Amino acid sequence: MKTTTPYLSNLTPLRGIAALLTVMFHVDLMLGNGGNLLVKFEDSLLFTRLYLMVDFFFVLSGFVMYHVYGKWFNESVQKVDFKWFTIARFARVYPLHFFTLLYCIGLKLIFFAAGGIDTNPMDAVSNNWAAIPSHLLLLHSMNVNEWFTWNNASWSISTEWWMYMLFPFLVKPFRGLNSVGRILVVVACFVGYLAITFLIVPIVTVPASIPFVAVNPADLSINVSYQYGFLRCLFGFVLGMMVYQFYTEGAAKRLMANGYTLISLTLGLGVCMHFAVPDVFSVAFFPLILLSAAYGSQNMDAFFGTKPMQRIGDWSFSIYLVHQPLMYTIGSVMTYLNPPSPNAPAGPPPQMDMLTGWIICVIFIAFTLLVSYLTYRFVEVPARNWINGRYGKNAVPAVNRV
Predict the structure, then answer these.
(1) Which residue from 12, 19, 197, 202 has the highest number of Cβ atoms inside 10 Å of its Cβ?
(2) CA–CA gap between residue 233 and residue 24 (Å, rounded)
(3) How far is it, in rounded angstroms, from Cα 211 to Cα 50?
C-alpha cells in the first residue's frame, strides 16, 4: 500500500490563474477576430502569447505527477501499480472531456436540425464528424487531424494522457541521474523547444479553406497543438519532473522561497511575453516560478491558501474545458438569431471598442466560473469518485487537484 503524499497547496491556484488567462486569450481571439481588442498590438504583444499558459500546465503536471506518483515507480513499473495509476488518471481527465465533447456534438446537432449551418469557415472545419473517434481515443493532437476539432482546447488533454502513459517508465531512469545528468535533460528539453520553433512550426499544415490561421514561423513560437502537440507536452512535462528533483533536494531554496522572487520571475515572464520574444525564453521562467511557489513562504502560503484562490484552482480543469463550448454556444445562438445576409460585403465584421470588449470578457469569465463550479461539483468529482471506487484503488491519493 502506497503512503499518502503531502499536498502542495500553493500549486493549485497557479493552475487556476493559468486557466483564466487562457480564457482571456480565447475571448480576445473571438471578439477581436484574431485578437488586438483587449490589448492593442501596438501597446503590448502579451495577449498574443497567452497560449503559453498551456505549457505552464505541462510543466506543472510533470512536477505534480512526480510528487504524487513517483514513489510508485521508483524501482520498477509493476503491472498492478500501472493499472491503478491509469485508472486514476482516466478518472481525472476523461469524464469531463467526454462530457464537453458530447455537449459540442449535441450543440451542433441542435442547430443543424434547426436549419443552422456553419457560416464561419473555421467552425465548418472544426465540426468534423470524422474526427469524433480521435477525440474518444484521445488521439486528436497526435497528427490525425488537420485542424482543431470540436472542443478545441481538449487537444492538450490528448497530449497529457499519452504523457501519463509514458511517465511511469521515466521515473526510475530520471531518479538515477546526478545533477549533471539532470541539467543535460533540461538542456535537451530546451533544444527540443528550439526544434519545434525552427523545424516543426514550418511544417504544420492547415486546411486549404483557412490558410490565414497558419502560425508564422517568423514569430519564433512553439505554438503547435493538433499536430506535434505531444512534443510540446513532452518537453514541458519532463522539465516539471526535473524541477521536482531539484525541489526535493532544496536546491536554491534560500533564494527561491520568498514572494519577492516569485513576483520578479512573474514580471520577467510578463516582459518576455509583452515584447513577444522567442517562446523558448518565456518557457524558461515556468520551472523557476513553479519552484518558488512550491517552496513557498509565510506570505505566499497565506495568499495562495485563501479560499477563493483554492477554489479557482479546484475548478481549473473545468474552466479550461468548458469555456470554449460556452463560446460556441453563444456564437451559435447569435448566428442563428442574426444570420448573415447573403448580400453582406465580404470581410470580418466591425470590431467593437476596447471597453465593450473588457466588459464582455469580465461577464464571460464570471459565467464560466459559475458553470465550472457546477461541472466540477456534478460531473468531475462524482465521476472521478465513481470510477476510482468501482475500478480503482479507493485510497488513490488526490493529485494536487491536477
Answers:
(1) 19
(2) 22
(3) 22
